[in-house]
Amino acid sequence: MTDTAPARAAQAPAPPNNPLRAAVWMIGAIVAFSAMAVAGRAASLELDTFEMMTYRSVIGLVVVLAVGGYAGTLNQISTRHLGAQFARNLAHFTGQNLWFFALTVAPLAVVFALEFTSPLWTMLFAALFLGERLTPWKVLAGLIGFAGILIIVQPGAQPLTIGMVAAASAAVFFATTAIFTKRLTRTETITCIMFYLTAMQLVIGLIACLWDGDMAIPSPAMLPWIAIIGLGGLTAHFCLTTALSLAPASIVMPMDFARLPAIAVVGMLVYAEALAWGVIVGAALIFAANYLNILTSQRHKT
Q1: Which residues pair with 155 in a beta bridge?
Q2: Helix (H) or strand (E) holding 239
Q3: pLDDT tens profile 110-128
Q4: Where are the domains of the chain?
Q5: How many other CB atoms are found less than 10 A from the CB of residue 161?
Q6: Residue 16, pLDDT score
């Protein structure tokens, strides 16, 4: 019998497509991300960003070792690419510190809107450093996203705040992290990457905290907020990864953008933050740019 392409296609397993279950997991991700943002603001009353990251890494390392030990995957931790692991975690540590700082000095909706430019920076960096093809559609997506940034920041019409700069810079460092992650996933397992994520950032955080010889110890009232910061990121990314395993990215990622209106509501109700028109329009353009990038990338894979 001839092995024809239609026959092979018929035998291939169907790609996952369960949008309803994916939506449930995305609700979990949105709640976790929003809770982490609120916890970061609360913790900033006693701790600086370096201290928050250090305590978060302690909790994360305990979770990774516990889960890895239970699953029997700790033997997957290798020392093959320590240089790339360190570069990835230094970029992520920097981006996460900038993100936590931006939460304390800028409206939550602005921080989240600018954070969503990270996939566009990743697209650019992948073309520059991984040799991925930069198609005309991707260039158009990048230009649309850049227009969204300009509308949010409105240079000349309003002062450029340190919070905007921090949030935008965090997105760039998150994109750098994604590039290193993409390289590492070719040879390293999730357990290995997550171990070095928490262990290396714990060491970097301790160095940054103890540089001046003074590291704040959180009060008992602050411990629940620290726990939310530590578990929120792991929970959010686990929910997001699970959702992507249940439905295509073209369905899941627009759900992720629901984080913006959700955190805008939190900002208005909890912190009395007004939602500016520029954030709404700019965020819509950034969403359109990301969605265009996802659709064209999937089209080139088929």
Answers
A1: 158
A2: helix 223-246
A3: 999 998 888 888 888 888 8
A4: 17-301
A5: 15
A6: 58
